[in-house]
Design brief:
By secondary structure, the protein is α/β, with parallel strands linked by helices. Helix content is 67%, strand content 9%. The chain is built from 19 helices and 13 strands. Strands 2-1-4-5-6 form a five-stranded antiparallel beta sheet, with helices on one face. Strands 7-11-12-3-13 form a five-stranded parallel beta sheet. It has a three-stranded antiparallel beta sheet with strand order 8-9-10. Helix 18 links the parallel strand 11 and strand 12. The protein is flat and about 190 Å long. The relative contact order is 0.13.
Length: 787
């Protein structure tokens, strides 16, 4: 399988992100928080989704909410891949409640989702089953390689071991021995035992025991029925006597209630008068109830802040006046400054001219120019004479054929040429001297313009000007500093005035809200407020008492016409009110208990009568339960025998396949450690150990350094990949080399490059050293940089 393109619509913080991948090694480089892990999780989500597998209800794993976009509903994207030469597009939406997965044939655009094997559960679409051929557990724990992420749990080790055994035994890893064992376990669990109450066997056993117990009880039901009938007759007679006594006591209770009602009404009238008096007192100081106690503290604080603010404003005014006096004492002569700047400018120009003139005098340069011109003129005369002699002599000697003298006369030609070049050099020297003479003239003009007769006087004035302008510049800088300070003080004073205004407004607003004119009135008003609250609390307590009394009156039984006309004087002198009420309460409880007991006996009698007609049906049901239990025992023995045989065959297959995994892991650890360790041993729980060749001892992970342990983890991953998944399955590495030194990293990259010959590899990193070492090894790779 080859992943060709990642197209993210919205996933985590990434939106509208498209990444093209190539065969072989792809390096995805980006700093922390650039989106590497987000892309990593996106690929896993596209292949296996974010719903937890193995559960009946739709439960999302934490990554679903972690990568949910903040806005919009485009949560999802596309993954373009090639499988067996055919291009496919996985289009997926992760929006909760509206999960959607489509697989499209890239060439035809046809939706081929229904033709794909999308995992063991139809509720969770897992295209990884179709395109990679492994479960999500194996995918995340083998194909995805992270930092120290190779350590496998027992559940994964069992799943991988099962896959190895199936592949070795059947040639196809989808024919699962584990599934067969699980099916047999489920069948056995469904049958159960007499100790499992929810299974068929347990339910039938329990039902049989209940039936036998019930049949034994039926023989005693008739005796119980007779006893219950006699007991009911006795209770009914007792109930009639107690009802007569209860009615008599009720008449006495009516008189007691009438007396109580009269007393409580008198008390209610007294409390109502007290409430009215308290309400009148509250009304006199009602205006102070709105005062807020915390506002008084705030007023004190604001008054203090206002005093401090006014003090600061006075301080600013004093500082500003002091700075203004200092500023007035500094004189700023702009005309003199410009004059000095002109002198300094002329001085610098004079320095350049004097340097260009070579510090020579005008007379010396003019004399040298005249000397060179005289010399040049004499040479020109000599050249003219020599040229005539050479021409005439050469013509005569050629006619007389006197070649000896002809050769001698050539010396005139050589001397003439030398003198000619000398005149050229003299002309150049004259031009340079005339230029130097012009510099001297310009320098004298500057001296004259500044009213000086000599250059020495000018230089003295130039030095004095520099000193004076430095002093003026210091004054100017000091004035600027003072002006800036004054502006800063003015700004702070404005801010302080603004703050003072705000403080005064806040104070006025608090006083206005509390309806007082100053803090003194505020303080006096708070004392009245406390009194108001105390009176309100007292009113509230009395109102509660009033409602309690009214409630007690309402709970008293309704007065009869006879009780209403009675008073306490008509009751016997030895009348025991408390005793009557106590006896009445006890009788009421006894009557309830008697009626409940009679009702319970009636129910038992009816149930006894109904139960006596069920004996024949119970015996037939007992025989049927015994027959079904016998059939289930036979079936359970057959399941136990089949499970034992399958486990025995599975163990033998694992012993045959284990050497293949050991060989692959050993080869990988040999390359990673450069021959330091050459042999690895993997047990059935996928725990890895390496052999120390010098001692022959197997070393656990705790005996190895952190870097070597990581290498062993990586070797285990590579070995499992070669043993479990097709050779062309992509491999993902996410920041898994952080603990590696350069040597270990180079060895690991060499192993990865070797794997990249047969599979696509995605290497996620936030470091540049991986690219440096790949370039150093001269290996090509596709670099994707994340901004």
């Amino acid at each position: 399988m080859l992943i060709r393109e990642i197209d993210i619509r919205a996933f985590g913080k990434l939106r509208d992100k498209r990444i093209s991948l190539e065969e072989g090694l792809n390096v995805i480089y980006g700093l922390n928080e650039s989106g590497k892990t987000t892309i990593h999780s996106f690929i896993g989500g596209m292949l296996y989704g974010f719903l937890k597998p193995g559960v009946k209800s739709a439960i999302y794993n934490p990554e679903h909410s972690k990568y949910t976009p903040w806005v919009g509903e485009a949560y999802g994207g596309r993954l373009t891949l090639i499988k067996d030469g055919v291009g496919y597009i996985i289009d997926r939406s992760f929006v909760k409640g509206r999960e959607m997965t489509r697989i499209i044939d890239e060439a035809t655009g046809e939706d081929v989702t229904s033709q794909m094997r999308l995992g063991p559960s139809g509720r969770i679409a897992q295209p990884g089953y179709q395109f990679i051929g492994v479960s999500s557990s194996i995918f995340y724990n083998t194909i995805y390689v992270g930092q120290r992420a190779i350590d496998t749990d027992s559940r994964l080790s069992e799943e991988i071991r099962e896959k190895m055994i199936n592949a070795a035994a059947t040639g196809h890893d989808s024919i699962s021995v584990e599934k067969a064992l699980k099916l047999l376990d489920r069948k056995s669990a469904d049958i159960g035992t007499n100790r499992t109450s929810r299974t068929w066997f347990g339910q039938l056993s329990r039902r049989l025991a209940d039936i036998e117990e019930r049949l034994n009880e039926l023989n005693e039901i008739k005796n119980r029925y007779d006893s219950a009938s006699i007991q009911r007759q006795e209770l009914s007679t007792m109930l009639d006597h107690k009802v007569d006594r209860y009615n008599y006591l009720i008449s006495l209770a009516d008189q007691i209630n009438a007396i109580r009602r009269r007393d409580k009404r008198a008390k209610i009238d007294s409390i109502a008068r007290d409430i009215k008096e308290l309400e009148l007192k509250c009304l006199d100081i009602e205006s102070y109830s709105v005062l807020v106690e915390d506002d008084l503290e705030e007023c004190y604080r604001l008054e203090s802040d206002i005093r401090l603010s006014k003090d600061r404003i006075s301080g600013f005014d004093e500082q500003w006046g002091t700075l203004q006096d200092q500023l007035l004492r500094l004189f700023d002569n702009k005309e003199r400054t410009e004059e000095l700047k002109q002198i300094i400018e002329d001085g610098h120009k004079a320095e350049r001219l004097e340097s260009s003139a070579g510090y020579a005098t005008r007379e010396a340069v003019e004399y040298e120019v005249k000397s060179i011109e005289v010399k040049k003129r004499n040479i020109s005369i000599f050249l003219t004479v020599a040229a005539c002699i050479y021409i005439i002599g050469s013509g005569v000697l050629l006619q007389t054929r006197n070649f000896s003298l002809l050769l001698f006369i050539q010396l005139f030609l050589i001397v003439g040429l030398l003198l000619y070049f000398s005149t050229k050099k003299s002309a150049k020297s004259i031009a340079e001297l005339r230029e130097k003479l012009q510099y001297i003239v310009d320098l004298e003009a500057i001296v004259s313009e500044n009213g000086k007769s000599t250059l020495k006087d000018f230089w003295q004035e130039f030095e004095s000007a520099k000193l004076e302008i430095s002093s003026l510049e210091l004054n100017r800088l000091r004035r600027m500093e003072l002006e800036e300070s004054m502006l800063a003080i003015e700004e702070r004073r404005k801010q302080e005035l603004t703050e003072l205004s705000m403080l005064e407004k806040q104070l006025a607003g608090i006083l206005r809200d509390n309806r007082v004119s100053d803090t003194l009135e505020f303080k006096t008003g708070l004392r009245n407020k406390a009194l108001h609250s105390k009176l309100k609390a007292e009113i509230s307590n009395k109102q509660i008492q009033l409602k309690g009394l009214e409630g007690e009156i309402a709970l008293l039984p309704k007065e009869s016409e006879e009780a209403t006309s009675l008073d306490n004087e008509k009751l016997p002198l030895d009348f025991d009110e408390e005793g009557v009420l106590k006896e009445l309460s006890e009788l009421d409880e006894e009557l309830k208990n008697l009626r409940m007991a009679i009702k319970e006996l009636d129910g038992r009698i009816i149930a006894y009568e109904e139960s006596l007609g069920d004996k024949i049906e119970m015996e037939e049901e007992r025989d049927l339960c015994m027959q079904k239990l016998s059939e289930l025992e036979i079936e359970k023995k057959a399941i136990d025998l089949a499970t034992s045989k399958i486990k025995s065959i599975s163990a033998e297959m694992h012993r045959d396949f284990a050497p293949v995994l050991n060989k692959e892991v050993s080869e990988a650890i040999r390359i990673l450690t450069a021959g330091t360790y050459n042999t690895a041993k993997i047990d059935k729980m996928l725990s890895a150990r390496v052999m120390d060749d010098s001692t022959g001892r197997l070393l656990n992970l705790d005996d190895l350094s952190g870097g070597t342990a990581d290498q062993l983890y990586l070797a285990l991953r590579i070995g499992m990949l070669k043993s479990l998944v097709p050779r062309n399955t992509p491999l993902f590495f996410d920041e898994c080399f952080q603990q590696y030194d350069s040597k270990r990293l180079e060895a690991s990259l060499s192993l990865i490059i070797e794997e990249a010959r047969e599979r696509q590899i995605l290497l996620f990193t936030s470091h540049e050293r991986e690219m440096y070492l790949l370039d150093k090894l001269g290996k090509s790779y596709n670099l994707i940089e994340l901004n």
